[in-house]
Design goal:
Elements lengths: L4 E11 L2 E12 L3 E6 L5 H8 L7 E6 L2 E3 L4 H6 L2 E4 L11 H7 L9 H16 L14 H14 L4 E5 L7 H16 L3 E5 L3 H7 L2 E6 L2 E7 L5 H9 L17 E11 L5 E11 L2 E6 L6 H9 L6 E6 L2 E2 L5 H7 L1 E4 L3 H5 L6 H5 L10 E2 L2 E2 L1 H14 L16 H13 L5 E5 L7 H16 L3 E5 L3 H7 L2 E6 L2 E7 L5 H8 L12
Parallel strand pairs: 3-8, 3-9, 6-7, 7-8, 13-20, 13-21, 16-19, 19-20
Antiparallel strand pairs: 1-2, 1-4, 4-5, 9-10, 11-12, 11-14, 14-15, 17-18, 21-22
Length: 509
């Protein structure tokens, strides 16, 4: 069946007492790129999960070429020609590219299956103008390469409608450019692409049409060439948004954290952080830019007590905290906004209120003589939920019922609120919409102005330049340079991220 038109007709989906989608009707045509825009919790991913058969709606229809179809699971969606690439890739890290792709195929050849699947992979990659090593293990690939594996996997399943959920959130600028080339090629072939993103500039660049969701409802639809970033942002949040974050220069204070000749290994026991030394002062945001996989995660885990430091020393206010427990390091005054929010940030099966006091449950006013003070916990939780705009009907709802962006806001609220001297912020606005991003940036700057030090790790150069007082670029476990934010261009930072440019140590700021 060739898909010429796909419709979602009056779709309503509820989770307990939360209405994620309310009477939504949209249409997607072959050969067009439709952007699905909305704040965190607006219902974008839920709507696409309905289309892909991951969840069943309470009411409404899915129509292909004007005929109703029933999609009860992803396998049936694939049979109809619908493919979805999730925000968090669905790949088996220890398997090869060819093994991951073969797992998703309906009819794997019986004779010489690996050879024949490899041949198909090479054919598809040549067709779309990129390279992919079929024998590489997934863990050996960059985020952009893993995304290409996902794309090849769904295309080899015969996808004519491709859903991309926040596809650029972990990509470098070069990888985004490559992805857009692939998307335009698919459009030329008559495929329909549904592009979920918070990045308004990307919508203006890649899409033909924009559908805006707010609080589970469609609130607007525009042809991309007939709108602009400001109008889309206003539709998304229901009010005008300022596109500026004020960051005044402040006088930094004493050195708060110092790393001396630090070496850390990764999960494969390979050297990941190599003889790294640096210091961060009070009232300073120290930004680390770099392509994922160059030692940033291991460095953060070493500082926060989640990973062993092989050699070297970490000092907090001249106190040696090297290889102390995560709890001890937190109690010393280091808060941690983790990169992997589901794995390290929350306990999904606990209520929101319990997650908010996860690190303070044994302290006053949340407990007394071993008994939990639920009233105090709920009161504090409601304050965090309100201030950080976490979309939930109750603080007693389970954390797993929150969207990814709302989980991120919950973690940010918990870690930023309080008197932490030092905040580790790893990809703090990953998956957040424009208004939430701006709010978080303002909160981090405020904490810096109040005297805290912030170690910011991000692949988003706009975030790095907006927030950082000094910028370090990490490549293969070392710094390629440390500079003031206003003394270098994004282009030079990009060259340093690729290992093509290095600033002599004596020139570091």
């Amino acid at each position: 069946m060739t898909i010429q038109k796909l419709e979602l007709d009056h779709i309503t989906k509820r989770f307990s007492n939360i209405t994620a989608n309310q009477d939504i009707s949209i249409e997607i045509n072959a050969g067009e790129i439709v952007a699905l825009l909305g704040e965190n919790g607006a219902g974008k991913t839920t709507l696409m999960n309905v289309l892909f058969g991951i969840v069943r709606p309470e009411s409404g229809l899915i129509l292909i070429n004007n005929k109703p179809v029933t999609i009860t699971n992803p396998s049936i969606a694939s049979q109809y020609g619908i493919g979805m690439i999730h925000q968090h890739f669905m790949l088996i890290q220890t398997h090869t590219v060819v093994e991951n792709i073969a797992l998703g195929m309906q009819n794997v050849p019986f004779f010489l299956p690996e050879k024949k699947v490899k041949k198909k992979i090479v054919s598809f990659t040549n067709q779309y103008g990129f390279s992919l090593n079929p024998d590489a293990k997934i863990w050996q690939l960059s985020a952009g390469e893993q995304q290409r594996v996902e794309i090849v996997k769904v295309l080899m399943q015969g996808a004519q409608v491709l859903i991309l959920d926040e596809p650029t959130s972990v990509l470098t600028p070069g990888e985004v450019k490559d992805l857009f080339h692939i998307i335009r090629k698919m459009k030329q072939e008559g495929k329909a692409i549904i592009f979920i993103t918070h990045k308004l500039d990307e919508i203006m660049e890649i899409s033909d049409r924009v559908i805006v969701l707010r609080r589970g409802k469609v609130v607007g639809e525009k042809k991309t060439n007939q709108t602009n970033v400001k109008e889309l942002a206003t539709m998304m949040v229901g009010k005008d948004i300022l596109y500026q974050v004020k960051k005044d220069k402040v006088q930094s204070g004493k050195t708060l954290l110092e790393a001396k000749s630090v070496y850390i290994r990764d999960d494969r026991m390979l050297s990941s952080v190599n003889n790294l030394s640096f210091s961060i002062k009070e009232r300073e945001i120290f930004g680390i830019a770099g392509v994922s996989g160059n030692g940033q995660r291991e460095l953060i885990e070493g500082i926060s007590g989640l990973r062993k430091i092989e050699k070297g020393t970490i000092f907090l206010e001249k106190v040696n905290i090297t290889n102390q427990s995560a709890k001890h390091i937190y109690e010393m005054g280091i808060s941690h906004i983790p990169e992997e929010r589901i794995r390290y940030g929350v306990v999904s099966n606990l209520p929101i209120s319990d997650n908010i006091v996860l690190k303070e449950y044994d302290k006053k006013p949340f407990s007394k003589k071993g008994l939990m003070n639920q009233t105090a916990i709920d009161c504090f939780s409601k304050k965090i939920v309100s201030e950080f705009n976490v979309f939930t009907p109750s603080v007693r709802s389970l954390a797993k019922n929150l969207s990814g962006g709302n989980i991120q806001k919950l973690i940010l609220g918990r870690e930023i609120t309080g008197s932490s001297k030092f905040i580790i912020a790893s990809h703090p606005t990953y998956g957040l919409d424009i208004s939430s991003t701006q709010y978080i940036w303002e909160q981090l700057i405020q904490k810096r102005n109040e005297g805290s030090s912030i170690l910011l790790v991000s692949e988003d150069l706009e975030e790095i330049f907006t927030l950082s007082d000094r910028i370090a670029v990490m490549y293969e476990g070392r710094f390629m340079g440390v500079v003031a934010f206003d003394s270098i261009s994004k282009e030079d930072i990009g060259l340093m991220m690729a290992g093509s440019k290095q600033i002599p140590i004596e020139c570091w700021s």
